[in-house]
Amino acid sequence: MGTTRMFRVFVLLGSAFMILLIIIYWDDVGASHFYLHTPVSPGPRAPRPPPQPKPQPSRAPSFLNDIDAFVNQFLEPGTGEPTDIVPADTSNQSEKEERYVPRREWKVHLSPIAAELRDRQVNPERRRRLLQEICANDTVVFPGKQRSFDDIPNKELDHLIVDDRHGVIYCYVPKVACSNWKRIMIVLSESLQQDGVPQRDPLAIPRDLVHNSSMHFTFNKFWKRYGKFARHLMKVKLKKYTKFLFVRDPFVRLISAFRNKFEMRNEDFYRRFAQVMLRRYANQTTPPTSVDEAFTSGVRPTFSHFARYLLDPRTEKDLPFNEHWRQVYRLCHPCQIQYDFVGHLETAEEDAEHLLRLLRVDNVVEFPASHRNLTASSWEVDWFSTVPVEARRELYKLYEPDFRLFGYSRPDWILNE
Fold this sequence. Notes:
Elements: H1 2-36, H2 63-73, H3 93-96, H4 113-118, H5 124-136, E1 160-163, E2 168-171, H6 178-189, E3 193-194, E4 197-198, H7 207-210, H8 222-226, H9 230-240, E5 242-247, H10 250-262, H11 267-281, H12 291-297, H13 303-311, H14 313-318, H15 328-332, E6 341-344, H16 348-358, H17 380-384, H18 389-405, H19 412-415
Parallel strand pairs: 2-5, 5-6
Antiparallel strand pairs: 1-2, 3-4
């Protein structure tokens, strides 16, 4: 009898122990296992019963959702091709007529994009290969070239805009049609809505919102949202998404920046930069206190002052170059990020058309028509005529990586006068 009782005691203790193990396993592993296999994807889906409210003591890590959303909705893993479109649900159509449904159809082209690009005078694929060759060329040296992506400080990733809906990453370069490309990214990501309906017309987006950082999800914001998983998620998206940027002749970009920020009334740039130039290079110990006063009195920095400011060691010692004249290789890190498409402002409309087709969004948005109010390359000689030849050569050295990386010829007609 004593043996039977002892056996029952052992059975009860063993059962209790197993129950305890199951509880511990579910708390530590089971819940996360369930989460990992719960697909969460943006965009239209067949209706499902509303989830029952349940307590959520802590927010689940959303980085896995982003990966699942992209892989499940946009790509077949390993193929890079669109998945089958989810059939539209026609039930309760009267209740859904006014509800906006993002466009999911893909435009079919009669001629392959690759064949068209081969016939073009300037091939974006050739630009991409040049970028890779220069990055692999040990004779071309510039700061930060050899560092890894992990070594790039978070604050230097603020120009990489991410659109998770379509799997696109755009590195914007100021003075290279970035306003219009930012508009397109807002339309694609549907980050601007009115009465619950996303804005679909790029030109209808106000300029102050175009450059509002809250409208764009950039890499440098990943840390706040994803914490310790941020850098890993960046790498995943860099591998999966289509990455592009647009560039222009580096010297012409400098002229455009000067015209826009110092030949027009800009109070912020006057106080931050123009006053410094006037004090250092124009013998103005007490320059005008406001941009209006400066324009009225005719005391303004010249392009020659601007060139001296860029070459002055004190400039970078005080703070990094402003984004409007910072080198593209410092903004977009082309030797750490393998861009799929490199567009040129000089062929902006043509490049934009092919890029939107490559992204398969040309049925969703069009690149806004340009009035071609561009700073012309033919103006370079006139603008640099006030800059001493030696300073021109030093300025070229400062921007030579951009010339080499993006296929722009050395401007000998400026440097050898």
